Amino acid sequence: MPEDRLAERLTLARRLASESRLDRLDQLLTGLRADAVTDGGVPADLEIELAALRAQALLNLERAAEAWDHLQGVQGRLAEAAPVAQARFHSVSGTAAYWFGDHDSAIDETVLALATLSDLPPSPEAALATATCGLTLAYTRLFPLAAEVLGMALLLAEQTGLPTARFHQQAQYVQLTWGMSLDHLGLEEECRACWEAVDRHHRLAVADPAGLPDVMLAVSHAERALLAGRLGDPVTGREHLRTAYAARAEPRSPLLVRVLAHAEGAVLAAEGRTDEARQVLRRLWDSVSDRAVPARTEDVPLLLARLDEADGRTAEALGWYRVLYGRYGRTQQESWQARETAARLRVEQEALLRRSRELEADTLTDPLTGLPNRRAFDAYLGAILPADGPVTLAVLDVDRFKRVNDGHGHPVGDEVLRTIGRLLREHCEDCDRYARYGGDEFVLSLPAPLDQARAAVAAVVAAVAGHPWGELAGGLRVTIGWGIAQAGPEDTATSLFAAADRELLAAKRGRRHLEPVPAAAER
């Protein structure tokens, strides 16, 4: 599938996922998979991205169990996926874990995603994964870190040419929720900075309505109405509510339904219509009080407490204040602050661990072919000998490789070695381990007696000889010589390698090549 066509369809899929249009999304994802299979199979990165998009749509519909199961279906492909795809997987898994009420796992998955993203170049996928991490951090009330991460997502979106409206709307959510939490604790000065950020992000989000899915446009106006109502500005609040109701956000997500009710109650209260406000907010509270919905629902009992307090219903107001501070008081705030500090440290530690593993892998990998190198192979062979079962070692090198470099140039020589490495992977399924040992020399270890191993190596040699090398360079022909030896009870890695190398040297001295022997003849 052409890359521009794929990018276009993925952009549409992201919009459909944001709008929770599951039927249309499923149709599009099915088409994308069918095209990828036609082109030779679904790459791991694409498979994970498609699973993440569908899981996000399910999470927007608050169908967490289905989202989790869908993600688990592609978890087996994580090892073969690029780091950015792994980050996407972990970021969405973090959100799913939150919806199960498992905040520890939500933070763990988010930490893994952020650590993976820390050293990656900017990309649309990195921006989306970072934004998802920011939202999950806000859900788990790690607000300062959430705001910082959403700021990183915005920067990535700008760097990669993604429309930024959706990222501003998500940042608006974080700032509004953070501001409410500060307001509940009476931290007015800190709260004021959040309210200003809400207004700024809202204006930037709605400045590009075409870049904002309908449901997110409606949520943005509803959140701005909620803020206006809480600040005692019913005119502005009612104006934004009308715009939110008029948005073509169908089907309406549970989040949008909640924020519309929340905003309606706040605006009605600001308008002095206290009985209507109380009815709307009480219905909302009854629908969410026993559910693991995202943070800020504790604002509903605060508004109900203020309504009762204004009407002189002191006992009822005290009851609502108890509900509020039982859910979000200073003790909880201190606990969440400690968890945020720990999360920051864990992101740094995990990023360092990843870099350490990558450096270790680099020291054991041949940069040209991607195969294990001599150091890795020597460590492996030394660890398995003496072995309980048969172990056979084959040493291969390219015939007259210097002539390839001299006659066709070193770039062609490098491509020959890369191709041989690929052919080893493709045609040596029976090998325990293979490596580029150095220069034009390769080694194979097989868990088989000599005759069986010889047939397997012969298949590799035949694949190299039969490769269309002339397509790489006119007149190019590549063959490999080889020697082979089976480990005896007293053999060490050194003695086994020496035995295989002697057979290879004997073949060279005799100016002959061990031609591939068909498996039937070997037997």
Structure description:
The protein has helices spanning about 5-20, 20-40, 45-60, 65-70, 85-100, 105-115, 125-140, 145-160, 165-185, 190-205, 215-230, 235-245, 255-270, 275-290, 300-310, 315-325, 330-365, 375-385, 400-410, 410-425, 450-465, 495-510, 520, and strands spanning about 390-400, 435-440, 440-445, 480-485. The chain is mainly α. It is elongated, with a radius of gyration of 31 Å. Helix 1 (about 5-20) runs antiparallel to helix 2 (about 20-40), helix 13 runs antiparallel to helix 14 (about 275-290) and helix 15 packs antiparallel against helix 16 (about 315-325). A hairpin with a 2-residue loop joins strand 2 and strand 3 (about 440-445). The longest helix has about 35 residues, at about 330-365.
